[in-house]
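Hi there,

I know you've been waiting on this one. I reran it after we fixed the sequence typo, so this is the corrected version. Both the input and the resulting structure follow.
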Amino acid sequence: MGDLKMVGRVGGKAMVWFITASLISLLLGLVLVNTLKPGLKTDISLNELDGASELLEKTQAFSLEEFIKHLVPKSLFEALATNEILQIVIFSILFGIALSSLGKKAKLIIASLDVLSHVILKW
């Protein structure tokens, strides 16, 4: 990408796209659940479901601090394997910033990644 401004612009656009897509999908889900009311006529209690209490405990323990810790991936491969899109986007932005700060030393890596992206897009 050449310079840090371009990395910031592309990274900012990626974050805006991710947040917008997440908000749209959440809004769509809320509208559909409140309109269709799935499970309204069933007599299932949360206590009867396997793992429901564990899920409720996990969601109640999730805080802003945990969310911020969750943003930075422990490993790129773990984030890819578990499909953590936000962690992958954050890693990509940080990797782009690091590459652009290296200047000419990073040309080989950038060229290799460019070839790899062309191969993936052809496939």
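Quick highlight: The radius of gyration is 20 Å.

Best,
R. S.
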